[in-house]
Amino acid sequence: QAYLSYSNIAALTRLAGKPGWDITKTLDNVKIWTHEEGAVLSLKVEMQVKVPSHVAFSLLSDFSLRQRWDKHFLTCELLQAVSEEEKIYHVTSGPTAGHQPRDFVVLVSQRQPCQPQEPYTVAVRSVTLRAMPPRPEFCRSEILCAGFQIHSNSSSSCTVCYFNLVTSGVKPYLAANLTGSSKSIEDTALECIKFLE
User: Fold this and answer.
1) 56 Cβ partners below 8 Å, 6+ apart?
2) pLDDT band for position 171 (50/70/90)?
3) Which segments constitute the START domain (predicted)?
4) What is the C-alpha to C-alpha distance for residues 130 and 116, in angstroms, rounded to an integer?
5) Of 69, 108, 76, 77, which is closest to residue 93 (Cα–Cα)?
6) CA distance 38 to 33
7) How wide is the angle at C-alpha 95 spanned by C-alphas 94 and 99, nearest 5°?
8) Closest residue by Cα to residue 15 from 162, 158, 160, 114
9) Could you tell me whether strands 86-93 and 40-49 are parallel, antiparallel, or unpaired per DSSP bridges?
10) Range list of β-strands (E), the chain
11) Taking the CA atoms of the chain, what radius of gyration do you get in angstroms?
12) Which of 45, 49, 18, 28 is nearest to 159 (CA)?
C-alpha cells in the first residue's frame, strides 16, 4: 500500500513535469494543453481560481464532492479509508454513445506541500480491490494516472492544474473535445471553478 500511494504521487509529479506540452485552447480562466508521446495522449487543464490553495485542496481531495461539479461522475462511494491521506472509492459514470456505463475503483492520494513553493497534490489511479469485483452492468475501466496540482498564487487565489494520462480507448472521445466540436472539457473546468469559488 505504501508503494502504491508513493507511485501514485510520483506518477502525477512526473506527468506534470514533462516538457513539450502544446496549448490547444485558451479561455478567460481556463487553458487546455495536450502532450502526445506515441499512442499516449495526456491532457492538462489549467484553471485560475479565486480561493486560497488550501481551500481548493480540501474540496478537490474529497472525491465524494466530485459529482457536484463533474457530470461524468454519477456516483462515488468511499470503499476504504486506508489512512488520512489515502482513500479508495468506487466511481460510476453514465453511458456514452454506444457504450455501457463505466465504473472505476480508484486510489486517491493527497499530499500537502513540504516546501512553500511546492504544490498541493491529489493523485488518482485505478486499483484492484477484492471486495469490489467487476459487475456485469458496468464496463470496468482503468485510470492510469490523473489528478490535481494546486499552486498558490496569493493568499486568496491559486492555479489548479488537472492532469489525465489518456489511454487509446478514450482518445477519439477526447479528440472531439479538443477540436472544439464538444465542449465537455471546458464546461467541466468552468463548473469546477464555480464550485471552488
Assistant:
1) 49, 120, 150, 158, 160, 196
2) low
3) 18-163
4) 39
5) 76
6) 17
7) 150
8) 162
9) unpaired
10) 22-26, 30-37, 40-49, 75-81, 86-93, 102-111, 120-126, 139-140, 146-154, 157-166
11) 16
12) 49
Query: Could you tell me the three cell numbers for 167?
Result: 489511454
Amino acid identity, position 170? V
Residue whose C-alpha is closest to residue 185's, from 56, 33, 12:
33
Report the SS3 class of residue 5: helix
CA distances from 155 to 39, 53, 55, 114 (A): 40, 8, 11, 18
Grid cell for residue 48 = 485560475
Angle between helices 171-178 and 184-196 (to 10 degrees): 80
User: In this predicted model, what pLDDT tens digit does every residue of 5-22 receive, in sequence order?
Assistant: 789 999 999 999 999 999
Contact 95, 50 (CB under 8 A): no
Neighbours of 18 (CB within 10 A): 12
64: how many CB neighbours lie within 10 A of its CB?
13
The per-residue pLDDT for 162 is: 96
The Cα–Cα gap between 144 and 23 comes to: 22
Where is pLDDT greater, at 147 or 184? 147
Euclidean distance between CA atoms 108 and 86, whole angstroms? 6
